[in-house]
Amino acid sequence: MRTCRRAFTLMELLIVVAVIAILAAILLPVFTRARERAQAAACASQLKQFGAAFFLYANDYGGRLPSPGGDATYLTAWSTDEGTTLNAYLGGGRRVKRSSASIWACPVQMARASHKTGRFAPNSYGMNSYLRGAHLDQPYPGDFPTRARDATNYEMGALMAQVKKPAQTVLLYESTYILSPDYAFGEVPRCGVIGFVRGFSEDAAHMPRSTDKAYAPGPPYHGPKGNYLWCDGHVSAMRPETWREFGVDPQPTWDRNNWYAAKYR
Question: Which of 37, 124, 179, 188 falls 20 to 30 Å from 47 in CA-CA distance?
Fold first, then answer.
């Protein structure tokens, strides 16, 4: 006996395709949000590891943090390639030249960039430049702290005991990256202040901008927010502060900004 096999009609095929398209349109944003949440969580976990490493380092060095960065103390800067500063406290997260990103780069940054090579391992994070022996008690000078004010103490990290409000003082933030071809993908300034934060802007009505044309500001990596590591070790997501919120004009409300560490808190 011959069996009659009925084929799909064109209309039925079009209906199936339409249903699949509708389901994809519904599910794709769900999957995208889930991936973004996972990336944000991974980034936060990386910053938590850095928090533990900073505290272990400070415990071994009389309560003093590593230097945010400088030429004379390059080997004691927190972010040092093939150095001994935090590498000894990071386990599998050691950073060496041309290594994989490990915990040094936000997963969102790694996913978006097409060029993943450079002089050093890709990285995303910068350290609060006010966490220095020279600048704890100085008001914002219009730029990040400079060596000219105190060449000796500029190179030192702050003492943890000097940070008056650790839960409200930034330790690490997600930074803009350098545009120069000499630095290639993923190289960020190892330290800075509000103007180096990914997503920094003049005020809420303006797009992100950089304080220097050599840096790419871009939007925050996690929706409208970026991840921050604070001086007490906790990690949270926060909208990047604007220039107006920092308080350069008008005068700052000192105890409300998240960057100063001592006198003005």
Answer: 179
